[in-house]
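Entry 14. Ran structure prediction on the chain below.
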Amino acid sequence: MKYKKIIWLLVGAILTFTACDTEELHDLNINPQAVNEINMNFLFSNAELSLADGNASGNRYLNWRTNVGYAGYWMQHLATLGNSLNQAGDKYFVNVEADDAPWDYGYSDQLKNLTEVIKQTGPGGFEEGRRLNTRQAARIVRAFVYLRLTDFYGNIPYSEGGQGIEGIFFPTYDTQESIYTALFQELLEAGAAISTANVDDGFAAADMIYQGDITKWKKWANSITLRMAMRISKVNPGLAAEKVNLALSGVGVFSSNDDIPWIPHSDGPSQWVNQNGLSRAFIGGDGGQSRVMSKTLIDVLMGADAASVADDDPRLMIYTDGANGNTDPLAQEGMPNGLDSGTLDVYTGIVGSDPNAIYSRLNSLFFKTDSPYKLMNYSEVEFLQADAKERNIGSVAGTAAEHYNAGVKAAMQMFEPYDASFVISDAAVDTYLAQYPYTSGTAGLEMIGEQVWISELLNWWDAWNYWRQSGYPNLIPVDYPGSITGGQIPTRLVYPSKEVATNNENLQSGGTSPNTHVGKVWWDVD
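Output, structure tokens:
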């Protein structure tokens, strides 16, 4: 009887509750403490910060695994004895997280926030007609993120990507060619629509990259367009020429290091929040060993005569803070890639060799937790114009040599935001260029490729992208037993394991094939 009374009491309560006025039920379902509409400028600021792997949800995850653990070793700027997950790239081993990280972090964090900003500032959004510059800047940043993803993987979800809130949980794949077409248009429209004529609506305060400088946003949109144009210059030279000309029109592309898009950071409020994600990668974990520099890069920086400092690259003692504390330029030495503890002992003739006690290491001054994070180099824009001029892609003013020299100068003088001591004088640049003058033809293209490769320190995935695009520099791959590539430098990331598990039908019908690390994306035709 006791249980029957309880049941009837519950039924009575339910009947009483369901008899309530609908309006009252609606009111009961509202959390008075919740935010129903968020200022899109806040979301945009968070999206900018996420570009640097610098927010609380993903600090160091993306950079540590893919930028450092894969591309830093693939491009032979770094070397390690280790085979750990975060050092897998040295010997072409698999790190599933390194393959997954750009996809996971791009779609679930960066693109999610950017897509929401664009949605809510567009037709039907609760900020429609407001935040006009925030909207266009978000479109430019979203194009930057999508370009990175498609260049890493090839075909990806684009037209149906980032629309889980719309009920699209298993998006179809777009071809990389069609994505490039869409991104060209997106950058053109957003670059034209962002304007000083628009009401600020708090954009300048929210914009940590350019602080609301509209001209610089237009230049960045054009610079991304130039990067894309040269990316496809071998597979579609006609379209590439058209887009090169488009990028150089109007306000044009980056014209100095002042145009570089930087993400600022701070030391807090806690260990993981607002700090530079790349710095966190090298400070924590096995970052000590991962700072060892590759022989390939050190040899190039030391010049043709390793016994003389006269022909050294001025960046040598900026890139490294020494070999076991020895800051004499002549004492610098890099470790060959592909060695383990046994083969290193054979190489050095010393039992129990310690790489940290022998070889040059990346300069620790790059990795202060409040260091800014560089998204794209101005120097790359000059090198791209030199490349276009040398191969007659579009109508580029000036000579290939002029753009090459400007690129070298910019690359050498862009490091002061990391530390005030990273200064290279105009005279030092001129001396270097006199020692290594630009030579036209195939030799010039090789020089351009090598300089892009040197300049992309810390942005190793960009060095990898340009290496795949140009074929330069001529890196000699390692052939370590059990590698995933059979002794080839990897040429793409493989799709995430969770995508294979949950969206396999669309992946199989529309993804880039073969889904291996030696497969190639659409524009990689060499």
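Confidence is low (pLDDT under 50) at residues 1-26, 28-35. Will compare against last week's run tomorrow.
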